[in-house]
Amino acid sequence: MENDLLKIGSAYIRVSDERQDEYSPDSQLKKIREYAAKEGYLIPDEYVFYDDGISGKSTQKRNDFNRMIAIAKEKSHPFDVIYVWKFSRFARNQEESMVYKNLLRKKGISVVSVSEPIPEGHFGSLIERIIEWTDEYYLVNLGAEVTRGMTEKASRGEPTCAPPFGYVMKDKKYYPDEASGAANIVREIFTRYAAGEKQRAIAQSLGLSGVRTRYGNMPDNRWIDYVLHNPCYIGKVRWSLNGARAVSKLDFENENIMIVNGQHEPLISVDLWNKVQQMLDRQKKAYSKYARKSQTVEYMLKGLVRCGVCGSTLACNGTSGKEKVKCLQCCNYARGSCHTSHSITIPKIEAAFIEGLEDSVGKKQFTMVPDEPKKTDSTTIDYDKLIAVENRRLERAKEAYLAEIDTIEQYAKNKNEITERIAELKAKRDKHIVKEIDIDVFAKKVEKVVEYIKRDDVDAIAKNEALRTIIEKVVYEKAKGNLAIYFHDS
Ligand SMILES: [Zn+2]
Questions:
Q1: How far does residue 312's CA lie from ligand 1's centre (Å)?
Q2: Nearest CA among 19, 8, 14, 6 for reference residue 45
Q3: Are 56 and 132 members of one domain?
Q4: Cβ atoms within 10 A of the Cβ of 451, count?
Q5: How far is the CA of 488 from the centre of ligand 1 (A)?
Q6: What is the per-residue pLDDT across 139-164, written as a single tens digit (0 to 9) for each?
Q7: Residues 324 and 398 in one domain
Q8: What are phi and psi of 432, to 5 degrees?
């Protein structure tokens, strides 16, 4: 019996305490029924499904949701549409939503959002997905207002985050930073790369001429790479559907990043940009071929040697001379941000290191590095985790300010409070408990390790493990020809 008046639908309602602006379940149901009635659907009470007050991320406790899906799968096909107030009430991530919608579609059941009506066809399903995306973004990141604000800004081509190097922000717009010369440095980076110079060489020469990044760091090859990949310089704005933070990372291939036309003046031409992108692609392909070929080199001091100038780890970066002796080099030097080469062959540094160890044992003199605070029952607090939480808060406060939700005064207040808390947490974390050590016992221990690492029948990985039980770090100062060994006893 087909009768227009007897089309049966169902309603799924889920409330959670995370959104303040929400209608009560009753008024949601009322709105859903009104909407359904206009489409000729009747929603009997038995097909009103309701899940209560759980956070959107947890799907396990959605008893009524599961019951609804089970009924939907029945052969009798009791209803052919599920009405929801918002898509975010139906499923809280895109994957989940797609899985259930596909399943329901196969059964001839559609999911309709009453407050987000969607046109038919491909265009409609695209919008539907964008709505799901932004809902997911809300849950993972910020308040709904921030999302809305940023989406609007991004769609208008307005900046959603702090300006990149080479621009300044004035009246919520990016302007080329000609005053400090940064805009010209961006142009220079693109031109030099297009002329065949590599990222590392560009980073090094800019660093030596006093250029610093927006955060005051020495330029390195990754920073140059980031600049070369940033479409902001041809007048585009990037916006991440996963949250603004993702944009600042080096994931320029992230599919969730939306690129729209901005309102700011480009710093370089599209021709130059295209040429550079082609070269970057070619470079990447060549590099991945090389990376596949290269093997991991094992040596006993792996990960233990630091550069005496910048503190970065020394890593094996190739071979030297006809005999192809393996060499170590400061990682930052290899990236172009440390300007003092710390190249040394592995046999040379190993010999000097063993000599240094034996000297320490002979004199019974060890430079000890304080131990990490012991996590006893009373101090099981993970301060690093707490600090990370505060840092995230700080970022959010900044985002809220940039999205024009908070005033500068509110932002300044939040920032002050959070910064104070971070300082407090750091102070608590850094209260080291320096243990008294028995020099004679420790010297014996070191002696044993020295014997072990001098053996020929032990491999480099085992030697490295043995060393890590007594060595905190080895600092190599090439200029002084000095190797400083720092011990720990734990
Ligand atoms: Zn260095």
A1: 6
A2: 8
A3: yes
A4: 10
A5: 23
A6: 554 455 555 666 666 666 676 677 88
A7: no
A8: -75, 145
